[in-house]
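REQUEST ID: PR-0412
SUBMITTED BY: lab tech R.K.
PRIORITY: routine
TASK: structure prediction, single protein chain
INPUT:
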Amino acid sequence: MPWFAQFATRGVRWQLAAIAGETQLLAAMNADAAQVLQHTGRGERLAFIAQDELPPGAAYEAHIAATGCVPTRHNLHDFFNASVWFAFPRIKAALNARQSEAIDLLGVGPTRGGVRDALTLFDENALLFACADPALGTALRGFDWRTLLVANRAAWGAACEVRCFGHALLEKLIAPYKACTGHAWIVDVPRAYFSWSEASRDAWLDEAVSGALLTNTELTSRVFAPLPVLGIPGWWPANEAPLFYEDATVFRAGRRAR
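STATUS: complete
OUTPUT:
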């Protein structure tokens, strides 16, 4: 399916390792990490460890930042989390840097606070909406589904596109359902972006979005725009029919009605 396309090549190898067992999966992940020399939020070399190696009382994000080691369970959720570390390493490192910084400042309390909530929402459920036409970004922010998804279907792939980032969202899309909704982070891209290779687009997004995450001082959940994933043109056969978008329980008026 389109939302898994970025992860497919590595995912097939990891799937075989995962079926063999937890030890084999971690070995496959660490072999790839050693090959590409990736780093976490504070410059530590990326590695994957079993969940039970996380020291008692240690905060997950702070442990990753301090050691480079990502505690990983033998399940789909963490399978996709590791996959995203390879697809968008700079964004994941930026998220880890901001999360660990917030923990250093405020500690780990009963609530995360607005910034950590937004960072967690990005990490778990974000879509990257790359857009070269400001009118399309405005339509997304305004819940104008007919403009974005029906009237401008030809613009998808030519003036806008989406990358799945959130690992919880990817896990949900193992069994997709119409109301499955991601939180879109809108990325303004140059027109030339759509003439680049897939790898070049991903690298550009990785650099641009990681920079924005590190410098955004007003990060809240309000910066995201809800986007039902199965409504993305070309991603689900049923959305070829305009009536697909008439379901107001999924394609809601949202804040535009207020």
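NOTES: The first strand starts at residue 47 and ends at 50.
REVIEWED BY: pending
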